[in-house]
Automatic annotation (TrEMBL):
Belongs to the pectinacetylesterase family. One of its GO terms (cellular component) is plant-type cell wall. This is Pectin acetylesterase. Pfam families: PAE.
């Protein structure tokens, strides 16, 4: 009897291990765009751009999904110097292989609409959501602000490797990459043949311009400094920069309505990164009253929940500036989360978050293939029992 029990336990652990392995999908090797260096299309430290490519097959051989990596930004020389010595500023610091999961998964059961596409993860090493454009390199810092050139060099490399024959194409991204997928959406479409079906997805990239808990404009000042440091203004929408200062044109609420390519917005109304870094950044909370709340939404005081409910309303007002369009998709849940397309348990699993009884992966697939439109906004926290609310372990850990 004991041997039978042990055998069953061993078999259960084996099955669990195989499941965890398969949900992550394959490990995909890195590709360096060495030819970009001569063009000045380089990371902050001057190293070449890079991406990971899992090739398409079968019915997906001429379909391309580009996922832009996230990772915040650097807004001045000091923060960019720190970033330069990490994988977010140098391809020399990047791991050689990464697992593909969620929207990048190569298993039909976990990614039914895009599993056999060409799936590319573009690494993020410029600190400006691929908008930087400063020709001169400072000899003291050796910082290169060339994000826009990096974007173009990677796209040209992929076009030469078959993307120019794309029948379907998606530009997607998470966080700073989700913002980049909005900023570059129309230019991505312009690179591809006229007959290509092209759409864009922004995951956790709809950052809003709002006051922090001290009443200050921390994020607006941050974006002003970022745009000035990286010389980003010339790569932001002229229809925006012609009527307001360039830093504001980094906020989706002022530009997204002008994007002509179909766009799907995936965002938590209580986006954990925005709560931690826009609503209650450390500089606006010097005594740490928000630290416990920012670690786990269950720790928040009623007064803090009230502030977060007000933040949600401001987020929805900013979002609704998009206007009405049948071509746009929207999945706005009321979870305390950030980046929901790359994590398998959030994208498409049995217990994934639901809106209108629909998982994110299903909503996006139906929208892309024009099977069914999806524009849903969740009720206020804590109404959605399917949420996977994020819990942070270390209050001093780098913000994702």
């Amino acid at each position: 009897m004991l041997d039978t029990t042990r055998s069953c336990l061993w078999l259960w652990l084996l099955v669990l291990g195989l499941l965890l392995f398969t949900t992550n999908g394959a490990y995909v090797p890195i590709t360096y765009v060495q030819s970009a260096v001569a063009k000045g299309a380089v990371c902050l430290d001057g190293s070449p751009p890079a991406y990971h490519w899992d090739k398409g097959y079968g019915t997906g051989i001429n379909s391309w999904l580009i996922q832009l990596e996230g990772g915040g930004w650097c807004n001045n020389v000091s923060s960019c110097l720190v970033r330069k010595n990490t994988h977010l500023g140098s391809s020399k610091r990047m791991v050689k292989q990464i697992p593909f999961s969620g929207i990048l998964n190569n298993k039909r059961i976990f990614n039914p609409d895009f599993y056999n596409w060409n799936r590319i993860k573009v690494r993020y090493c410029d600190g400006s959501s691929f908008t930087g454009d400063v020709a001169e390199v400072n000899r003291v810092t050796n910082l290169h602000f060339r994000g826009a050139s990096v974007w173009l060099a990677v796209m040209e490399d992929l076009l030469s490797k078959g993307m120019r024959n794309a029948e379907n194409a998606i530009l997607s991204g998470c966080s700073a990459g989700g913002l980049a997928s909005i900023l570059h959406c129309d230019s991505f479409r312009a690179l591809l043949p006229m007959g290509t079906k092209v759409k864009c997805i922004s995951d956790a990239g709809y950052f809003i311009n709002t006051r922090d808990v001290s009443g200050g404009h921390y994020i607006q000042t941050f974006f002003d400094q970022l745009v000035a440091t990286h010389g980003s203004a010339k790569n932001l929408l002229p229809s925006c920069t012609s009527r307001m200062k360039p830093g504001l044109c980094f906020f989706p609420q002022y530009i997204a309505q002008q994007i002509r390519t179909p766009l799907f917005i995936i965002n938590a109304a209580y986006d954990s990164w925005q709560i931690r870094n826009i609503l209650a950044p450390g500089i606006a909370d010097p005594h740490g009253h928000w630290e416990s709340c920012k670690l786990d939404i269950k720790n928040c005081l009623p007064s803090q929940i009230k502030v977060m409910q007000d933040f949600r309303l401001q987020f929805l007002v900013a979002l609704l500036r998009l206007g009405k369009s049948a071509s746009r998709g929207m999945f706005i849940d009321s979870c305390f989360a950030h980046c929901q397309t790359e994590m398998q348990e959030l994208w498409f699993m049995q217990d994934s978050p639901l809106l209108n009884k629909t998982k994110i992966g299903k909503a996006v697939g139906d929208w892309f293939y024009d099977k069914k439109p999806f524009q849903k906004i969740d009720c206020a926290y804590p109404c959605n029992p399917t949420c996977h609310n994020r819990v942070y372990d270390d209050p001093h850990a780098p913000h994702s």
